[in-house]
Amino acid sequence: MKKVISFFRSMKFGMILLVLVIVCSFAGSLIVQQREPMEYVNRYGAGAAEVILALGLDDVFSAPYFIVLMAALCVNLTLCSITRLTATRRAGERLRQQALSAPATRTLDDGQAQRLCAYFKRRRYRCEERDGQQLFVKNLAGFYGAFLVHLSFLLILIVGVAAVITAEVRDETVMPGDTLTLANGARVTVESFRIEDETGTLDYASQLTAVSSDGQRRAGKLVRVNEPLSFEGYKIYQQTYGTAGRLRIDRPSNGSSEIMTLTEPCFLTLNGRDGLFYQALYPGYVRGEDGSITLIASTSGAYTDPVYDILSVADGMTTPVLAFPGETLTIGEVSFTMLEPVSYPGLRIKRIHPAVLGALYAVFVLMVAALYICFFMPPVAVRVSKGGYAVVSPKTQTGLLLELETLLKEDN
């Protein structure tokens, strides 16, 4: 059992876990997450897509192996912290004893000893009387640097998980030109959305403009996958996308005209009997030599040759129709004109609770402080007596020794 605990708390095991977590996180950053299987096939090829889906790399941060890695890393950091804290508590006294028993660097007369004591007091070393000798110590908190680094890593993991669990997440579908109102009253407008850039390369991007509830603050950004817009505590991500059909309904009898956006199957009718039943929108088609049309069911890019799959319902008769943008179907006194479809984004709005966010910032401050203590506050103990002086520290104190030698030479 001791060997098992010793392995789980070892630095080697911790480094292995940390490398694996970094590799998984790196994969999660490079590979778009939570998309349809067909998109991975189109992006990376059939072979790579099969590997991605088999390994769960399409949703890395929710994969069981990633959760196990994070839990094991937490256990490792906890055991390391406990072990280091136990040893750290005795480190200060060990340093004192080493200074008291260390051989003197050089002998001192009374005047030199007094000069050194005055020097250390000016430098705010704590003076202690031990066995008739003057002992000066400083930066004993430096022994806690490594412990605090381990603790801050552990707290970052814990608070990070708490941030994920307690985060407010909301998914919204917003058409270009429409505005979404957040819980705090801020408004987010989708100015435009594209699936491909000017060269035809896949580039899912939404141009967003956010305005605060009082209209005093404004922010705009072209949001892509993993490049969110941050505004008033919210992060707005480009999460999914879709393409909706659009048609214009004209009634010559009264001169009315209306444009509708269609994202789901629906029946458009005025009298409850006759009308148009919208079934689906296909991204393209292939025309055979005999003139037959084979519909393309899915694509990860823009709809290049969209086809409307509709049913015409009139006088008790239902007729299937494949219509293209620009075509008009008249049923009774109503005309239905198919328009070019519109692509739209699915946005994910995420907000971390202010208390959890504050705790996360506090933990990062703790880590910075811990690193400062580790590298810039080395513990030092100096024994000064008539027999001479001795400097003891876990790190080389070349600068301090040169200062002391210079001081003693000036005294002569």
Question: Would you write up a description of this structure?
Answer:
There is one protein chain. The chain is of the alpha+beta class and 412 residues long. Among the domains are: 102-139 and 378-412; 163-242 and 347-364, no CATH class; 244-341, no CATH class. Helix content is 37%, strand content 35%. The strands form five sheets. Strands 3, 8, 9, 10, 17 and 18 form a six-stranded antiparallel beta sheet that branches. A four-stranded antiparallel beta sheet has the order 1-2-19-20, with helices on both faces. A hairpin with a 2-residue loop joins β8 (229-231) and β9 (234-251). α3 crosses α4 (46-54) and α7 (145-166) runs antiparallel to α8. The two termini are 62 Å apart. The model has no long low-confidence stretch (mean pLDDT 87).
Main attributes of the structure:
six-stranded antiparallel sheet; 37% helix; 412 residues; 35% strand; alpha+beta; four-stranded antiparallel sheet; elongated; 9 helices
Summarize the model shown.
The chain is α+β, with helices and mostly antiparallel strands and 412 residues long. The chain has nine helices and 20 strands.
Tally of DSSP helical segments: 9
Largest beta sheet, briefly?
Answer: 6 strands, antiparallel
Which residues sit in consecutive blocks of at least 5 with pLDDT less than 50?
none
User: Overall pLDDT, averaged?
Assistant: 87
Give, in order, the helices and strands.
HHHHHHEEHEEEEEEEEEEEEEEEEHEEH
Q: How much of the sequence is in beta strands? A: 25-35%
The N- and C-terminal alpha carbons lie at a distance of 62 Å
- Strand elements, count: 20
Rg measurement, Å: 35 Å
Judged by helices, strands and strand pairing, the structural class is alpha+beta
Overall geometric form: elongated
State the share of residues found in helices, binned by percent. 25-40%
